[in-house]
C-alpha cells in the first residue's frame, strides 16, 4: 500500500477536504438527507466524521482507551455541531504535526506505512469521501468528479488505498464462485491495477498486467468516487455484472 505522495500532500488534502465538508454541510443544513449514505442526514454525517477525527488523533497519541461513544455524545449536545467538527479537525491536524515519524500506534490496513503517514493518508481520503457525501446532501444527488475537484494524483492515491488496502481484507469485498479478473484504469494518470477475484481471496496488483475479464475505467477522480460508491461516471466493459457486483458487494463499514 505504498504511496508516491508525501505527508504534506495528505495533510493539505485533509485540511482542504475538512473545510469543503464544513462548507457543504452548512449549505445543505443539518436535517438534509445524504443521498450517497442512505439513512443518514447531515447531522449524522458530521457527527460520524468528527468522531473519526478524534478517534484517529487518539490513536496517534497512544490513547488505547479512547471512547468513541463519548465523542458522539459530545456532538449530540454541542451548541454548534459544525464548530465541534472544526475543533476536532484542528486537533487532528495538530496531532499529526506533533507526532514523530517513528511513533508507534495502531494501523489497520495491509502493508500500511508507519502510523503518522498512515493516519494522515487515511483521514485525508476519509474526509474527502465524506466531503463528497456532504456535497451530495447540498446538491440532492451524487456529485460529479468535476464538482469534487480532487487533483488527479490525489484521487489515484485514494484509489490505490482502496484497492490494495481495503478490499483485500476479509470483509466487505467481492465474492465469486468462479474466479475472474478486473482491470482498473485511470485514463488521465495512467495508473492501473489488476484485481484477481477468487472464491476465498482477492488480491490486487499495481500495473496493467495481462488482459482481464472486465475493466472499470475513468479519470482518477471518477474512479475515486465511483469505486467508493459515490459516483456513477465509471465505464465498465467485459463481464456484464462487474459494476453491479461492485455496487452490491464492496462495502466499507465503520464496524
UniProtKB/TrEMBL annotation:
Residues 153-240 form the MDMPI C-terminal domain. One of its GO terms (molecular function) is isomerase activity. Keywords: Isomerase, Pyruvate. One of its GO terms (cellular component) is plasma membrane. InterPro entries: DinB/YfiT-like, Maleyloyr_isom, MDMPI_C-term_domain, MDMPI_metal-binding. Transmembrane segments: none annotated. Pfam families: MDMPI_C (PF07398), MDMPI_N (PF11716). Residues 14-134 form the Mycothiol-dependent maleylpyruvate isomerase metal-binding domain. Coiled coil: none annotated. This is Maleylpyruvate isomerase family mycothiol-dependent enzyme. It comes from Jiangella aurantiaca.
Amino acid at each position: 500500500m505504498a504511496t508516491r505522495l508525501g505527508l504534506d500532500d495528505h495533510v493539505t488534502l485533509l485540511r482542504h477536504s475538512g473545510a469543503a465538508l464544513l462548507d457543504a454541510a452548512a449549505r445543505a443544513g443539518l436535517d438534509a438527507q445524504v443521498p450517497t449514505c442512505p439513512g443518514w442526514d447531515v447531522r449524522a454525517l458530521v457527527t460520524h466524521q468528527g468522531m473519526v477525527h478524534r478517534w484517529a488523533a487518539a490513536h496517534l497519541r497512544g490513547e488505547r482507551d479512547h471512547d468513541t461513544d463519548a465523542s458522539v455524545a459530545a456532538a449530540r449536545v454541542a451548541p454548534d455541531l459544525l464548530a465541534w467538527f472544526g475543533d476536532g479537525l484542528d486537533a487532528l491536524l495538530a496531532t499529526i504535526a506533533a507526532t514523530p515519524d517513528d511513533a508507534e500506534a495502531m494501523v489497520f490496513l495491509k502493508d500500511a506505512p508507519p502510523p503518522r503517514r498512515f493516519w494522515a493518508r487515511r483521514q485525508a481520503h476519509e474526509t474527502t469521501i465524506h466531503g463528497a457525501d456532504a456535497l451530495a446532501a447540498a446538491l440532492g444527488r451524487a456529485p460529479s468528479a468535476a464538482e469534487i475537484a480532487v487533483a488527479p494524483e490525489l484521487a489515484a492515491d485514494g484509489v490505490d488505498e482502496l484497492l490494495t488496502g481495503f478490499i483485500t481484507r476479509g470483509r466487505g469485498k467481492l465474492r465469486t464462485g468462479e474466479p475472474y479478473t478486473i482491470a482498473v484504469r485511470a485514463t488521465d494518470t495512467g495508473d492501473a491495477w489488476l484485481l484477481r477475484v477468487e472464491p476465498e481471496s482477492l488480491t490486487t496488483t499495481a500495473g496493467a498486467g495481462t488482459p482481464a475479464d472486465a475493466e472499470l475505467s475513468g479519470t482518477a477522480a471518477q474512479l475515486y468516487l465511483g469505486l467508493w460508491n459515490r459516483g456513477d461516471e465509471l465505464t465498465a466493459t467485459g463481464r456484464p455484472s462487474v459494476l453491479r457486483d461492485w455496487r452490491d458487494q464492496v462495502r466499507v463499514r465503520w464496524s
